[in-house]
Structures are given as C-alpha cells and as structure tokens.
Amino acid sequence: MNYKVNKSNEEWKKELTPEQFRVLREAGTERPFTGEYDKHDDIGTYSCAACDFELFSSEQKFNSGCGWPSFWGELESATIEQKKDTSHFMTRIELLCSNCGGHLGHIFNDGPPPSGKRYCINSASLKFNAEKEE
C-alpha cells in the first residue's frame, strides 16, 4: 500500500528510538505492563509516534488489564489499516497506521461496548498530545 509518509529504514532509524523502530517498522511487540501509556489516563489524543497522525482519543481508552494500552475504537479520521497476521503460529488482525504504515498492535473481539473491540496498541507506537486548557 502507498502511504502519505514514505521513508527509508535509514531515515526512520534517525527519527525513532531503537524500541520505536523495532515496534513500528519491524512489527515488534513491547513486553506487557512496561509501556508508558498502559496506565495513562490523561485527557487528549494519541498519535502515531512515527508520523504524528492522530489515531485515538483518551475517551476511547479503557483499562483492559492486558498490559498494553487498549482502546474500544479509533478516531473516525484515523481509518487504521487492518491486515491478517499469521506470525507466531496464530492468526490475528494487525493494525497499521494508515498514514505511514507503522505497526501499532492488534485488534481483538473482547472489548467493551459500544464496539466490542479491543485495539491492543504498543506504547512505543504512540505519542500523547494533552488536551489544551481553555
């Protein structure tokens, strides 16, 4: 798929931390309960750490207890790409940033209403933007 943001691995390595590169560009997974945003509950939006494309609202975040930040939905403008993932001897649905193709995490059908979905996202894939006070 063609993305609005296209960079070489060398360019990504200069812009991302080693952990962000491993997760976003090599489809890695951070260890559970270690990510910066697992227990994060500030008000604002979560963007792709690679390209700053807005993905989730703090209003969509919930504590699933799985060890990774979880959301029951995405921002309407995010249109997160879903792709079949058969790695690690299982079949899952991988989530990719629709702006740069960065690996975000996976989606499962065990989330709360209203969607019943759990977007299980690596903290290394995210950047938090606090809501500005008026």
- Terminal Cα span: 40 Å
Number of helices: 2
Q: Can you give the mean pLDDT? A: 95
Question: Element order, helices and strands?
Answer: HHEEEEEEEEE
The largest pleated sheet is described as: 6 strands, antiparallel
CATH superfamily of the domain at 45-134: Peptide methionine sulfoxide reductase
CATH class designation of the domain at 45-134? Mainly Beta
Q: What Rg do the Cα atoms give? A: 14 Å
Report the sheet-strand fraction: 25-35%
Helix content: 10-25%
Number of strands: 9
- Tell me, briefly, the overall form: globular
- Look at the helices and sheets and give the structural class: alpha+beta
Please identify, by name, the CATH architecture of the domain at 45-134: Beta Complex
Strand order of the largest sheet: 3-4-8-7-6-5
Q: Uncertain spans, ≥5 residues at pLDDT below 50?
A: none
Q: CATH topology of the domain at 45-134, anyone?
A: Metal Binding Protein, Guanine Nucleotide Exchange Factor, Chain A
Account of the 3D structure:
The chain has a domain at 45-134: Metal Binding Protein, Guanine Nucleotide Exchange Factor, Chain A (Beta Complex), CATH 2.170.150.20. The mean pLDDT is 95. The protein is globular. It has two helices and nine strands. Strands 3-4-8-7-6-5 form a six-stranded antiparallel β-sheet. The protein has a three-stranded antiparallel β-sheet with strand order 2-1-9, with no helix packed on it. It has helices spanning 9-15, 18-26; strands spanning 44-48, 54-57, 61-62, 70-71, 81-85, 92-96, 103-108, 118-121, 126-130. The chain is an alpha+beta fold.
